[in-house]
Design brief:
Blueprint lengths: L74 H12 L8 E7 L4 E9 L2 E10 L4 E5 L7 E8 L14 E5 L4 E4 L10 E8 L2 E3 L2 E7 L6 H15 L13 H13 L12 H11 L5 E5 L4 E9 L4 E9 L4 E2 L9 E9 L7 E2 L2 E2 L1 E2 L3 E5 L4 E3 L11 E8 L7 E5 L3
Parallel strand pairs: 1-10, 11-22
Antiparallel strand pairs: 1-4, 2-3, 2-5, 3-7, 5-8, 6-8, 9-10, 11-14, 12-13, 12-15, 13-20, 15-18, 15-21, 16-17, 19-21
Length: about 400
């Protein structure tokens, strides 16, 4: 069993859309506008139904027949594809929005089905604490679906939506008619959740939420906390609430980049944090856990006069952590192993799932700092092989824990 240092990160797993107690997991309530005229279901995806600020780039409204190759029996599907482009819903009716109440920046896609024909459209980036209009007016399709995914930089994350239907999606901007079957080789099936939007002040909305049930403001701050952790700053816990560790981590990030305190409140701040995560910003060592297991990590440091091992740091699934390195460190070594909920090592084919090397240091199961590495066994210690880490002066080094 491994005992960790006190500043370990905590990742809150994401679940499905927020549940309405009287409906399916992805359900809210639909309020139909009185006197609304019925329109074709595909009309809800019309580019012209978006406001100028919400309009999408050219690939969305291309009417090229390459979007869905013509096939025998596909006349109805092609008809839907044309409706996506040509029909306009009543601008007096309320929008349908996707609202993000998670601590992840997400990509979302929307799907509709009517009389056996299905269509999908995406991707819509939705920042934590924000809503984005995806459909205009009061659509009258028989079924509505939604799919949401965290951006890849977060690593492995539990699904953000449940799986009640398999519909086609594309990579990048896409519009798919006949979405029950992927006619284009570049499309793939993805799990969508059936939903009924709930009524809001701005119209109707589908809400993507975590068990923490964040407010919009809390969701955004939790997103800042999560990205700071991924960039190697100790901003735990991820709870959407300002605290000493979160405030210190945020202040450190702003100071290192010569940013004012107000920069944290700007719309572009999440992008700055994501850039830092992608770059592995900052000198030193960054551990990133790309597995679905908790990983316990330890350091070995050679300062020229002595060798010291120290541990454990707890790195949760999908998280990154930057351990403090002594300034006089000449060489740095790393060891880590995956553990279960009880702290026992996880095995694969009879061997511990671990990441190390051939340089031996003494360790123990509980928190430790050891400078004498002779005769580990006689002192109730364990000899463990560490791997050397090549640190670059400016960019440092990033070690990603992945399953073989």
């Amino acid at each position: 069993m491994r005992c960790c240092l006190s500043f370990s990160p905590i990742l809150v797993p994401a679940r499905s859309f927020i549940a309405d107690p009287l409906s399916l997991p992805l359900v809210g309530r639909v309020a139909s506008a009185k006197g609304a005229s019925r329109v074709g279901v595909a009309a809800i995806f019309n580019r012209r139904s978006l406001t100028s600020k919400q309009r999408l780039p050219p690939p969305w409204y291309s009417a090229s027949p390459r979007t869905v190759p013509p096939r025998k029996g596909e006349g109805r599907r092609n008809f839907f594809a044309l409706l996506f482009i040509l029909l306009v819903t009543d601008p007096a009716l309320a929008d349908l929005e996707i609202c993000n109440r998670t601590s992840f920046v997400i990509d979302a896609a929307i799907g509709i089905e009517d009389k056996g024909a299905a269509a999908t459209r995406g991707w819509f980036r939705v920042d934590p604490g924000q809503c984005r209009s995806v459909l205009r007016g009061d659509p009258s399709a028989e079924k509505f679906f939604a799919h949401a995914r965290a951006l890849p930089l977060y690593g492995q994350v539990q699904p953000l939506t449940s799986a009640q239907a398999q519909l086609c999606v594309g990579e990048g901007d896409f519009l798919v008619a006949g979405a029950r079957r992927c006619a284009d080789a570049t499309h793939r099936l993805a799990p969508f959740a059936e939903m009924k939007p709930r009524k809001t002040e701005n119209g109707q909305a589908v809400i993507v939420a975590e068990p923490s049930d964040y407010t919009p403001e809390q969701a955004r701050f939790a997103a800042v906390q999560r990205l700071l952790l991924l960039a190697g700053y100790g901003a735990e816990p991820i709870d959407g609430v300002s605290g000493p560790r979160s405030d210190a981590a945020l202040a450190s990030f702003l100071r290192e980049r010569n940013l004012s305190q107000d920069a944290a409140n700007t719309p572009a701040f999440l992008d700055l944090l994501m850039d830092a995560v992608r770059e592995g910003a900052g000198p030193g060592l960054l551990w990133c856990n790309d597995t679905k297991h908790t990983v316990m990590a330890a350091l070995g440091v050679d300062d020229g006069s002595s060798q010291t091992s120290r541990g454990w740091w707890r790195v949760e699934p999908g998280a990154c952590l930057r351990p403090d390195l002594p300034r006089k460190a000449l060489r740095v070594f790393s060891f880590a192993e995956a553990v279960d909920a009880n702290g026992a090592a996880i095995e694969r084919k009879g061997r511990a799932l671990s990441w190390g090397g051939s340089t031996n240091f003494c360790v123990r199961n509980s928190r430790f700092e050891i400078s004498d590495h002779s005769d580990c066994g006689t002192r109730a210690l364990t000899k463990q092989g560490f791997q050397p880490v090549e640190l670059q002066q400016r960019s440092g080094a990033t070690i990603r824990f992945r399953e073989p």
